[in-house]
Recover the amino acids of this structure.
C-alpha cells in the first residue's frame, strides 16, 4: 500500500496533536496537508510543522487520499456541504464529537467511505487512544489506513456499534481533562498543606505519570494497586475513606454520563437524522 496523503480540514488543537504525533513517528511532512478558514491558524501550523497549510478546503479535499475532518461539530455540516467531488477512493475520517456517519453521508454523499473516530490530545506525545467505527462503504484497505494513522499517535480500538463512540468520548476523548483537573486540585491541595507551588506541582505530575505507567504495565488491576499503597491504619486509608464518604465514584460517573449525554444531544442538534425525520413528517 503506497503511503496516503492525509489532509486535515481544521488546523486547531486536535489537528496539531495528531500532526505533531505523526511527524514524531517519522511520517514525511510532504504527506500531510491542512486547511483552516483562519489564515493565521493555517500559517501557524505550517510554521510549526513545516507542512503545506492554506485556507482552501475544496482544494485540500481534491488533493488527499485521506480527508480528516477536524472542525468543531457546529461547523461540520457547512464544511462538508461546501466540498467538491471527492478524489476517487478517498477515505473520510471525522473526529467530531456527536456527528454520526449518517449525517456525514447525507452531507458528503451516500457513497462516502467514513470512519468516525474519537481520539484524544495525548496523541501529540504519541500516547493517544482512539475509538474507531467504520461505515459499510469502508474497505479493508481503508480500515488499515485509518488504523495506521491513529496507531502512529497511540493505540486504536475498533467498535462494533457506532453509538459506543459517545461512551468513548466520555471516557478517553474528554478524559485527559479529568486528569488535568485532578492534577490542578492535587497541586492546590499540596500548596495548602505548605509546599511551594512548584514542588506541589512536580510531585503531583510525577505521581500521575508513575501511577499511570505502573497501572498500564501491571498484571493486577487498579483496585489491587490501590490496596498495596494503603497500609492498614496508615495515611492513604484515611484519604480514600474521605473520598469514599464524598462519593468519589458517583461524582466521576455523573460527570462522564453528562459528557456522553452531551455527545448524543449534539447529534440531535447538529446532525441530519433529526432534520430528515422532521422533514419526512407530514
Ligand atoms: N480537543 C480535544 O481534546 C478533542 C476534540 N475532538 C473533536 O475535534 C474537533 C476539533 O476540535 P479542536 O481541535 O479542539 O477545535 P479547535 O477549535 O482547536 O480547532 C478547530 C479549527 O477549525 C477551524 N475552522 C472553523 N471553521 C472552519 C471552516 N469552515 N473551514 C476550515 N477550518 C475551520 C478553526 O479555525 C480551528 O482552527 C471537534 O469536532 C471535537 O469534537 C475530538 C477528540 C478530542
Ligand atoms: O469537549 C469536546 O467536545 C471535545 C470532544 C472530546 C474532547 N473534546
Amino acid at each position: 500500500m503506497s503511503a496516503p496523503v492525509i489532509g486535515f480540514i481544521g488546523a486547531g488543537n486536535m489537528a496539531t496533536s495528531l500532526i505533531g504525533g505523526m511527524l514524531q513517528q517519522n511520517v514525511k511532512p510532504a504527506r500531510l496537508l491542512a486547511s483552516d478558514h483562519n489564515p493565521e491558524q493555517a500559517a501557524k501550523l505550517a510554521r510549526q510543522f513545516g507542512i503545506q497549510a492554506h485556507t482552501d478546503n475544496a482544494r485540500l479535499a481534491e488533493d488527499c487520499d485521506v480527508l480528516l475532518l477536524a472542525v468543531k461539530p457546529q461547523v461540520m455540516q457547512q464544511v462538508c456541504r461546501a466540498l467538491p467531488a471527492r478524489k476517487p477512493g478517498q477515505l473520510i475520517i471525522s473526529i467530531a464529537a456527536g456527528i454520526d456517519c449518517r449525517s456525514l453521508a447525507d452531507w458528503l454523499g451516500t457513497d462516502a467511505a467514513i470512519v468516525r473516530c474519537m481520539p484524544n490530545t495525548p496523541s501529540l506525545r504519541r500516547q493517544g487512544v482512539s475509538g474507531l467505527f467504520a461505515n459499510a462503504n469502508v474497505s479493508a484497505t481503508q480500515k488499515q489506513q485509518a488504523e495506521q494513522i491513529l496507531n502512529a499517535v497511540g493505540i486504536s480500538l475498533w467498535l462494533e456499534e457506532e453509538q459506543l463512540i459517545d461512551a468513548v468520548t466520555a471516557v478517553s476523548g474528554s478524559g485527559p481533562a479529568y486528569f488535568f483537573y485532578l492534577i490542578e486540585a492535587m497541586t492546590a491541595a499540596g500548596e495548602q498543606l505548605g509546599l511551594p507551588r512548584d514542588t506541589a506541582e512536580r510531585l503531583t505530575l510525577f505521581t500521575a505519570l508513575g501511577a499511570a505507567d505502573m497501572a498500564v504495565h501491571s498484571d493486577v488491576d487498579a483496585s489491587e494497586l490501590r490496596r498495596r499503597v494503603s497500609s492498614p491504619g496508615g495515611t492513604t486509608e484515611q484519604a480514600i475513606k474521605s473520598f469514599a464518604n464524598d462519593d468519589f465514584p458517583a461524582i466521576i460517573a455523573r460527570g462522564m454520563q453528562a459528557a456522553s449525554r452531551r455527545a448524543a444531544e449534539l447529534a440531535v442538534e447538529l446532525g441530519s437524522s433529526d432534520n430528515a425525520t422532521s422533514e419526512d413528517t407530514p
In short: Residues 9-14, 35-38, 41, 57, 70-73, 75, 79, 95-97, 118-121, 173 surround NAI (ligand 1) (CB under 6 Å). The longest helix spans residues 248-270. The domain at 175-246 is CATH 1.10.3730.10 (ProC C-terminal domain-like fold).
